Amino acid sequence: MTEMKRIGVLTSGGDAPGMNAAIRAVTRCAIYKGLEVIGIRRGFEGLLEGDVIPLTSRSVGGIIHRGGTVLRTARSERFKKPEGQVEALDRLRELDLDGLILIGGEGTFKGAWALHQRGIPVVGIPCTIDNDIEGTDMTIGFDTAVNTALDAVRKLRDTASSHDRLFIIEVMGRRCGFLAAQVALASGAEYVLLPEMPFDLDHLCKKLHYARRQGKTHSLIIVAEGVMGAQDLAAKLKDTAGYEARVTVLGHIQRGGSPTAFDATLASRMGAHAVKALLEGESGIMIGSLCGQMVTHPLPVAWEEKKPLSDEVLSLMEMLSI
Ligand SMILES: Nc1ncnc2c1ncn2[C@@H]1O[C@H](COP(=O)(O)OP(=O)(O)O)[C@@H](O)[C@H]1O
Ligand SMILES: O=P(O)(O)OC[C@H]1O[C@](O)(COP(=O)(O)O)[C@@H](O)[C@@H]1O
Ligand SMILES: [Mg+2]
């Protein structure tokens, strides 16, 4: 095992609130343990270009509460190819880095695994508003995104109830519905459409008819972007059952803003645990938080096992939306 002297840290994939808190925790814990820290800008793309900056305790000051990522982020097609990975290896050697901490989602972890297999010690910190990573109850950024979307949905409920209207609200989630399900439950929406479940227009129309018969004068439908666009859903409801719906697409607003206390805390704990794991000689692993405890798993856990939606949450939605 090489003695760790100098490590790198990068953020990659979609940004998420709490990325800065994680960068700060990694940097300060590493410096506390006597390491030098190099920040790599714009994820794998910046790594390929050698776009780096030394990080100090002071340079990561004043960022714990800020959304986005001071290191910036990117999605890099070049790095996905073996030639890109070999090039990245050369850059890492030139930079004289003994290990790398990668903050991002499932795609970032696949990239981290490629580097691990090529002999670079890596540790992944799960950070995405999608919460679609197995091995951790929560990813950094998810709680903030839920609260941001919830705040918007509550405002829409005000106007929906004042005008006796049906609203369709589209939230992020191309392949997973954690955000949609949690926002729907917490906002008291009548219906939620998730990528994990088959779309059933007939069932939706029946629920809306039933709601009206029960005396409900307004309804909220949450749809994850991966199921279909909110406009398309509104058109289907109009064509099939004559429903007039107002549409709101929350979009990238869900990715910004200050991290909640939960996310800033999770990011700080995961950042510290990542440095500890790297110093203990671990590699090819991700940090997780299970039942409040910091844990580690091999990186492939993140994509080989699909994180299931909670049946309890789904059946509760069904019960509470009558
Ligand atoms: N299979 C893969 N092999 C190597 N690198 C990958 C792979 N998948 C994704 N990546 C790298 O990770 C980056 C971030 O992944 P992406 O899926 O965009 O975001 P996230 O990490 O948030 O899920 C990609 O742009 C790419 O450079
Ligand atoms: O910002 P982009 O590139 O349009 O990507 C949008 C996607 O990124 C996310 O916000 C976050 O996904 P990742 O964390 O996997 O990058 C998804 O919810 C959304 O589908
Ligand atoms: Mg992802």
From TrEMBL:
* Names of the cofactor(s): Mg(2+)
Pathway annotation from the record? Carbohydrate degradation; glycolysis; D-glyceraldehyde 3-phosphate and glycerone phosphate from D-glucose: step 3/4
**Binding of Mg(2+), residues:** E106
Give all residue intervals belonging to the Phosphofructokinase domain.
Answer: 6-278
Catalytic activity, EC? 2.7.1.11
Q: Where does ADP bind?
A: R24, A25, V26, T27, R28, R157, G188, A189, E190, K216, T217, H218
The active site of this protein is located at D130 (proton acceptor)
Q: InterPro entries this protein is in?
A: ATP_PFK, ATP_PFK_prok-type, PFKA_ATP_prok, Phosphofructokinase_dom, PKF_sf
Matching entries from Pfam families are given as: PFK (PF00365)
What catalytic reaction does the record list? beta-D-fructose 6-phosphate + ATP = beta-D-fructose 1,6-bisphosphate + ADP + H(+)
Q: What class of enzyme is it?
A: transferase
Predominantly, its location class is: cytoplasm
Record's superkingdom? Answer: Bacteria
Tell me if Magnesium is a UniProt keyword of this record.
yes
Record's subcellular location: Cytoplasm
- Residues the entry annotates as binding ATP: G14, R75, S76, G105, E106, G107, T108
Q: How is its activity regulated?
A: Allosterically activated by ADP and other diphosphonucleosides, and allosterically inhibited by phosphoenolpyruvate.
Q: Residues that bind substrate, according to the entry? A: T128, I129, D130, R165, M172, G173, R174, E225, R246, H252, I253, Q254, R255
User: Which keywords does this Swiss-Prot/TrEMBL entry list?
Assistant: Allosteric enzyme, ATP-binding, Cytoplasm, Glycolysis, Kinase, Magnesium, Metal-binding, Nucleotide-binding, Transferase
Q: How does it assemble?
A: Homotetramer.
Summarize the protein's role.
Catalyzes the phosphorylation of D-fructose 6-phosphate to fructose 1,6-bisphosphate by ATP, the first committing step of glycolysis.
Q: Which family does it belong to?
A: Belongs to the phosphofructokinase type A (PFKA) family. ATP-dependent PFK group I subfamily. Prokaryotic clade 'B1' sub-subfamily.
- Full protein name: ATP-dependent 6-phosphofructokinase
Which source organism does the UniProt entry give?
Acetomicrobium flavidum
Lineage at the top is:
Bacteria, Thermotogati, Synergistota, Synergistia, Synergistales
- Gene name? pfkA
